[in-house]
Specification:
Blueprint: E1 4-5, E2 12-13, H1 37-49, E3 62-66, E4 83-87, H2 88-99, H3 110-131
Antiparallel strand pairs: 1-2, 3-4
């Protein structure tokens, strides 16, 4: 194994820092929530109950997203009313908007427009049939 100099003291070490200057892991001792079997079972159950994205209607690559982040309300982690089924792209877009990476006037998901048009056509056709 090739040794590299420690970023703090310059002594040869197998990693970026020598053993003495290695940063402490801040997450040590904290339970990782989203990869536990309980979360996986809960997420699978929600995606089975609602097999489409709440935002765009997609049925591919679904994820479960917390409406109120678990960081703020850990007691709502497994509360169905605090979870929403979203496709990965809508979930990423929502996260980017909350972080401020994307401007607030970001365009909606491309298929959302088509979904809305189909829904409106069904309503118009239904109303036209009722009028006769």
């Amino acid at each position: 194994m090739i040794s590299k100099p420690c970023l703090r003291c310059g002594e040869p070490s197998p990693g970026t820092y020598c053993h003495e200057h290695r940063p402490k892991d801040k997450r040590r001792g904290r339970k990782r929530r989203t990869n536990g079997t309980e979360w996986m079972t809960f997420s699978k159950r929600l995606r089975r109950l609602q097999p489409w994205c709440s935002k765009c209607g997609s049925v591919n690559d679904l994820t479960v997203d917390h409406i109120i982040p678990v960081v703020h309300r850990p007691d709502l982690e497994f509360d169905v009313s605090n979870c929403d089924v979203l496709c990965r792209s809508c979930n990423g877009r929502k996260d980017a908007l909350t972080r401020g990476d994307t401007p607030p006037d970001a365009r909606p998901h491309p298929s959302a427009k088509a979904q809305k048009l189909l829904h409106l056509q069904m309503i118009v056709n239904k109303d036209a049939g009722d009028a006769s």
